[in-house]
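Dear colleague,

As promised, here are the two records you asked about, laid out in our usual form so they can be pasted straight into your sheet.

NAME FIELD: protein one
SEQUENCE, THEN STRUCTURE:
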Amino acid sequence: MKNKQGIDIFEEEWDNLLILDACRYDTFVDIVDLPGRTEFRISQGAATYEFIRQNFENKTLHDTVYVGGNTWFLKLRDDINAEIHDFLDLQHGDTDVEFAVEELDVPKPKSVTNAALKAHERYPNKRLIVHYLQPHHPFIGQQGREWFSHQSSSLTEVIDQTPNITQEKVQKAYRENLELVLPEIEKLISELPGRTVITADHGEMLGDRHQFVPFRDYGHHEGIYNDELIKVPWHIVEREHRKQVVEEPPQSKTTTSKVEIDKRLRDLGYKI
C-alpha cells in the first residue's frame, strides 16, 4: 500500500536530512523553536518501513550516507533494491555508542549526533541522513521511565499493560522524548554546512480518534493515512553555502545478520 499524496524525499532540496522518528507536525510546531522556517510535508508512509520502502525502492543513491538510529533500512535494503554510499548502524554495539535503553539497543540522542558529525567529517561531499529514534517510544525521559514499562511490542501494548496510564501521560511522555532530542538537533544544525531539513518519517496517534471509525488509538499503523500519521514537519535551515555533493562507489555493505536485525526491530516494538 502507498500514500500517493506523499512526497519523495529525494526530489526535495536538502544537504542534510534530520529525521525525528514518529514526530507529529502539530507537536513539533507547539514545542520547537529553531532558526529557520517550518513548513509541512505529507509522508509516503505511516510507519518507518513504509517510509523506507516508498522513498528508497529501486534507487541508486551513491551521493547519500545514512546514520541510522534503527535498522529498518538494513532490513529492507536488499528486498527493495536500494543502494546508498554508506549506512552507519548505531544499534550494533560499537564502543562509541551509548544506549538510552541498553536492553533495547536504543542509542542516546547524543550518540546519534556524534556519529553524524563523524560521518560528515568522513564524507563531507555526501548528502547526510540522520535518523533519531525519538520521539518514538520507548520513552527515555524521567517521567516516561517512571510511568511506562517498555517490555511490550508496540505503543498500544505498552499502554494496555501499564496500570493507571492516561492519554495525558502518554502525550506528556511523548513531548518529553521530543524535548530531549532537540538540543542534539540544535547542535547539528549549527555545525553542519549546507541546507538542513528537520522532518519525520511519519507521525503518531496519541489517543486521537480515527476519521471514519471514531475510536481512540495509539501508535502508528501501515496503510492508515490520518493527518496525525502522515503530516510531518519540514523545517528548513539555510546556510550560506551548499555542499558540493558527488557520487562515488558505495562502501562495503554492513554484514549484520538478518537474525540480529530482526531482534533489534522486535525490541523496538515492531512485529517481525
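NAME FIELD: protein two
SEQUENCE, THEN STRUCTURE:
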Amino acid sequence: MPTVIHGGGAVHYGKAGSGPGLVLVHGTGGDAVTNYAHLVPGFADLRTVITPDYAGSGRTFDPGGDLTLDLLAGQVAAAFEEPSDLVGFSLGAVVAAKLAAERPELVRRLVLIAGWTHLADSRLELGLRTWARLAATDPESFAAYGPLVGFSPGFVGSVGAGALMAGQAPPGTLRQIELDLRVDIRDLLPRITAPTLVIGNTQDYLVPVEHARAMHAAVPGSEYAELDSGHVVLHERPAEVTALIREFITRS
C-alpha cells in the first residue's frame, strides 16, 4: 500500500487503474478496503482510483487526542497531487465537502453520499451517542447495532444479520464517532464551487435522509439523487451507486 507523509506520520492509500484521479473517502469505523474494495473495479477502467485511510483507520498516522476535520482533510489531500474527482461517504462526505470548500483547485467534481451538515436533530445525536457507547463498552451489542442502523430491514432480512455483524470496533472508531458529534460544516458548504452530486438514502436509520437533503440545499447548484437503501449504500446498492457516480464524473 503506498504511503505519503502528512502531519508527522504516514498516510496509507490504495491506487488502481489509470486516467484522471478519482478519490474515494471512507466513513466512520471503516477504511478504504471495507468501504470501497468491491467498488474499485467499477471505476478503474476510466480513472486512477485512490483510496486513502485517514486517522483512526488502517495504518494511517493517528496523533491521538481529539480528531479534527482539518487533520482528516489534510490526510486525504496528501494522497493525491492533481485535480481529481472526489467521492465521500458518511464522515467521508463531510471530509470531502470541507476539502472541496477549502481546496477548490484540487476538486473537479464532488459526490457526497449519506452526509450531514451538523448535529441538527436529536435522532441523529441519539444514534451516534448510542453507537459510541456500545463501541466503548459492549462489543457484542456494537456488532449487532451495525446491521440494525446501517442497513434497511429488507436487506438485513435477505442477507441475514449474522453475515452483516461487525466484530470488535476498529481502534479509531470511538474517536471518529466523537468527531461525528462535533461536525458543523454549514459555513463551508456555500463555498463549494465544484459541480456536486449529493446522494441520500431513503431508509437510512443512522443519518436520516433529511440530512442529505439539507446538504444538497446548502451546496450551490448541486444535483440530488435518492436511493432506496439504508445508510451503508456502498454495500446495499453497489451497482446503483456506482452507476450514479460514473454518469456524473464522465459528463462533458
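A couple of things worth noting about protein two: The domain at 3-250 is CATH 3.40.50.1820 (Rossmann fold). The two ends are 32 Å apart (CA to CA).

Best,
R.
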